[in-house]
Amino acid sequence: MTALRCTGLSRSFGALRAVDGVDLTVEPGARHALIGPNGAGKSTLFRLVTGTLKAHTGRVELAGRDVTRLSDVARCRLGMSQTMQHASLFGSMTAAETVALAVARHDGGRISPLPRRRCAVRARADELLAEVGLADRGDVPVPALSHGERKQLEVALALACRPSLLLLDEPAAGMSPAESARLLALLTALPKEITVLFVEHDLDLVFSLADSVTVLHLGRVLLSGKPDEVRSSEAVREAYLGAGRREELFLP
Ligand code: ADP
Ligand code: MG
Q1: What ligand has the least distance to the C-alpha of 53?
Q2: Which residue owns the Cα nearest ligand 1 atom 22?
Q3: Residues lining ligand 1, CB < 6 A?
Q4: Cβ contacts of residue 38 below 8 Å, gap of 6+?
Q5: Residues whose CB is less than 8 angstroms from the CB of residue 51 and which lie 6 or more positions away in sequence, other chains included
Q6: How many angstroms separate the CA atoms of 41 and 219, rounded?
Q7: Which protein residue's CA is at the shortest distance from atom 14 of ligand 1?
Q8: Which DSSP helix (H) or strand (E) runs through 247?
Q9: Strand ranges (DSSP E) for the chain?
């Protein structure tokens, strides 16, 4: 059974077909990258998958179950989780408090006044912080974290929902090379029970992590295949660089 199957997904904005009849299959345990030039439709496709945006046509299946008509919250309950882009919304809370809130919301619905339950939530939050490499940063207020650390925290928040499918939209955006390397290590170490679909501009990170790649161009799938097929594709090179340009796009 596939982890995620999209069939004929489309979404227009006015006359613009941002996502235009996309078929996408993500196998269980995959580290599947979605790449393509700016404006290709990657973020729109993500939003159709997570349900934060309604598709005009097509179908989304999560582990064989049709979720097309389900809300984003319902899809999340079924195991689909995405990185939240605005961890800083939690204002002056610490990293650990922020994760504890996500754990409590997912596991119990609200923060419990019972000390034992509070301890369990806090222990799970500490575990998640350790998993994303923030074990020593739990007491730091979110606004005081570095950009890279906030991105790591977003992954911890997504993992708090115990997802089977984790969606990351440009997790390395704005990261320094060192932060990016830390993120790669963290994503590489995630258990294989979690399938990962990620959009990323940093092609080094894409080819270090991905075992399958889908290239979007003008809202359509240009190519879907193994990283080596994508690297050597003339069509992909042209989509990125324009026809006739000869630069080396993917370094070995
Ligand atoms: P990518 O993530 O690949 O850069 P997007 O999915 O963000 O591309 O955008 C695809 C196209 O759809 C772009 O031309 C973008 O301007 C357009 N678009 C995205 N969201 C909206 C929206 N809410 N309203 C109008 N146009 C949009
Ligand atoms: Mg985008």
Answers
A1: 1
A2: 13
A3: 13, 16, 18, 36, 38-44
A4: none
A5: 60, 67, 70, 71, 72, 74, 75, 80
A6: 5
A7: 39
A8: none
A9: 4-13, 16-26, 31-35, 57-62, 65-66, 80-82, 165-169, 195-199, 212-217, 220-225
Q: What is the residue with the minimal CA distance to atom 7 of ligand 1?
A: 43
140 membership: H or E segment, kind and range: none
CA of 19 to the centre of ligand 1 (A): 9
For tokens 């969606």, the residue is 167
For residues 58 and 32, is the Cβ–Cβ distance under 8 A?
no
Q: Which helix (H) or strand (E) holds 72?
A: helix 72-77
Residues in the chain, overall count: 252
Strand order in the sheet with 80-82: 80-82, 165-169, 195-199, 31-35, 212-217, 220-225
Identity of the residue numbered 65: R
| 28 contacts 79 by C-beta, under 8 angstroms | no
C-alpha to C-alpha distance for 155 and 104, rounded to whole angstroms: 16
The tens-digit pLDDT sequence of the chain (252 residues) is: 899 999 999 999 999 999 999 999 999 999 999 999 889 999 999 999 999 999 999 999 999 999 999 999 899 999 999 885 554 456 789 999 999 998 988 876 555 555 556 688 889 999 999 999 999 999 999 999 998 899 899 999 999 989 999 999 999 888 888 888 988 999 999 999 999 999 998 888 999 999 999 999 999 999 999 999 998 888 888 877 665 554 555 554
99-127 as b/e: b if 16+ CB within 10 A: bbbbbbebeeeeeeeeeeeeebbbebbbe
